[in-house]
Amino acid sequence: SSGINAEYGGKTEVMIIRSKHDTKSKSPEEVQILDEVIEVTKVARNLGVIFDEKLTMEKDVSHKVKGCMSYLNNLWRIGDKLDRDSKVKMVNMFIHSKLDFGNSLLYNINASEIGRLQKVQNSAIRYIFNRRHRRGV
Fold first, then answer.
1. Dihedral class, residue 48 (left if φ above 0, else alpha if ψ from -120 to 50, else beta)
2. How many C-beta atoms surround the C-beta of residue 7 within 10 A?
3. In 3-state terms, what secondary structure has residue 23?
4. pLDDT tens digits along 26-38
5. What Rg, from alpha-carbon coordinates, does the chain have?
6. Distances from the Cα of 41 to the Cα of 21, 25, 87, angstroms
7. By three-state DSSP, how is residue 101 classified?
8. How far apart are CA 80 and CA 93, in angstroms?
């Protein structure tokens, strides 16, 4: 089979980006590019960043938060065996690098999404300083 989708290993995706305020218009279910019909998707991943059709970045933030919290849970298991400098290095390597990747795309996102990312950073600080929940950071 030839065509645009075959040329790129079946990974060709089409996403129609709309304003988050646009609640009335409907996206087509598929589009034709050259001689090929490609299904329109509402979510797409590119270079490790998850985009949605309204660019709210909610899926990307959820993915980052879930991944970081998983790393933090594992780090807590070995935390008593590490000194503070080692903990800082681990947090920078596993948490901050994940949060920083693609962060310029998070400009102007919803405050609740920023809050979720802030909670990850707060949890990382608690880990470094051996503070459990409900104590000040």
1. left
2. 12
3. coil
4. 778 888 888 888 8
5. 20
6. 19, 15, 40
7. coil
8. 18
Look-up of token digits 């970081």: 68
The tokens of 45 are what? 């991943």
Q: What is the mean pLDDT of residues 99-118?
A: 94
Distance CA 43, CA 18 (A): 12
Give the integer Cα–Cα distance in Å for 40 and 30. 5
Is the overall model pTM greater than 0.70, yes or no?
yes
User: What is the CB neighbour count within 10 angstroms for residue 22?
Assistant: 10
Strands 43-46 and 36-39: unpaired
Reading the block at residue 129, the tokens are 């300083």
Q: Half-sphere exposure of 97 toward its Cβ, with a 13 Å CA cutoff?
A: 8
DSSP 36: E
Q: Strands of 1-137 (E only): list them.
A: 30-33, 36-39, 43-46, 49-52
Is residue 13 within 8 A of residue 22, CB to CB? The reply is no
Query: Residue 65 pairs with which residues in a beta bridge?
Result: none
What distance separates the 2 farthest-apart alpha carbons in the chain? 61
